[in-house]
Amino acid sequence: MGRRNVLLIVVDQWRADFVPHLGAGFLRTPNLDRLCREGVTFANHVTTAVPCGPARASLLTGLYLMNHRAVQNTVPLDARHMNLGRALRAIGYDPALIGYTTTTPDPRTTGPRDPRFTSLGDLMDGFRSVGAFEPTMDGYFGWLAHKGFPLPPRREDIWLPQGYDHGEDAVPGVTDRPCRIPADLSDSAYFTDRALTYLKGRGDRPWFLHLGYYRPHPPFIAPAPYHAMYRPDDMPGPVRAATWRQEAQQHPLLDFYLRGISQGSFFHGAGGAATALDAAAIRQMRATYAGLISEIDDNLGRVFDYLQETGQWEDTLVIFTSDHGEQLGDHWLLGKIGYFDESFRIPLVVKEGGRSRRGGEVETAFTESVDVMPTILDWLGGTPPRACDGASLLPLLQGGPPAGWRDLLHYEYDFRDVFYSQPEGDLGLPMDACSLCAVQDARYKYVHFAALPPLFFDLAADPHQFRNLAEDPAHAGLVKDYAQRALSWRLLHAERTLTAFRATPGGLEDRAAPQG
């Protein structure tokens, strides 16, 4: 292999059980299927944090939430942290980024009037934007205007269903209608256009491209023909208790979200509570979600075909993943919140240049989003930072998990107040007490809260996590064991940028450096 390229595809809000190679036979994704045949698909992969900003901070720094501390959307990322963009520059790559990272800058590096502090997040330092979406989707809406599409006074009204006007009483939530934007002008088409423009302009020089897609993130409405590609009756139904009030009895945090999530965050122009959606509406929403997935897949096919036609497919490490999952009505929830698997389990498919030695196989070892950064650096001949919490996946692509590979999945969630959600007062908690961490293996899952009761689930008997066993005397020993394992995990991964250095009579020593 000559030059080495990297295509890191990061979709938004695509959960792991919507991958055909892992059993979602109701979906049509021929291009993702191709990637799965030529690469390795990881069946037990999680993001280590939600929502978008914290998830992408972990993905692109290789750090757990407890170390990077960009704990919520809108919370700044400390400028001292190494990230993938900066690390790639250090080994001679000019890292291009299409899409977004939802990163709020370190206020110590700028001033309070910086306009980046008025948006949900901006671009992470170190990357070169070649197809911006943030802030506030200006890049996409400007592209639409440039293409001659007449933008409505409220630009977001392009995601209203055809046949409705914003402000009408009859504006639906869940809908079987297409949105007003045609497929060739959708945000997925925009990102693909930017990707092909970048790749065609790059010539024969090695490249790294972060190719981000906004979908299947809400609003859950798809352009024609994707809006009608799937029948609601063919979608899996929601996994939830008989009523949302029954579900809410499990935990105070779950009760808070079930009382507060509105449909308007997921269906443009809609009102009402998310818990008002019946099973038929959930299936229709999932059919639309599946249509958005197939739209992305068709667009990825354009990129894959170009790389194949130009002989670059064999030189390119391709990684497909998502920032986080989506509840999709399971447990009566929408979005990416809390502690359920639907929010944290995400796709990961990795294809080395050429066909991977294990092409087509499914790997069941526990993998996490923090593994992506060290994998890319390892493949390009770089060295992951000492502080990195993840590990390179190259050994798993070439054989199987090495000795000492993790035996638990780990993830975290911080639920302190942000401008669109205020649980602190409702739960009676101070800001820094609004956090949880979860550890789980194939059998058990333990969720520890800083200041709320814990949760413990037997995943063999209760895979969908309805019955909390944390206070069951028969499980007290197991609860103690998993709580201790969670504590050990946090101790082992406490921030360690400088902990390998020593002052000695002979001068500075780095115990982490390779010994010659």
TrEMBL record:
Signal peptide, first to last residue: none
Keywords: Hydrolase, Metal-binding
Domain Sulfatase N-terminal: 4-381
UniProt-listed InterPro entries: Alkaline_phosphatase_core_sf, HdlasePehA, Sulfatase_N
One protein family per Pfam: Sulfatase
The keyword Hydrolase is annotated on this UniProt entry: yes
Name of the featured protein: Sulfatase
Organism: Paracraurococcus ruber
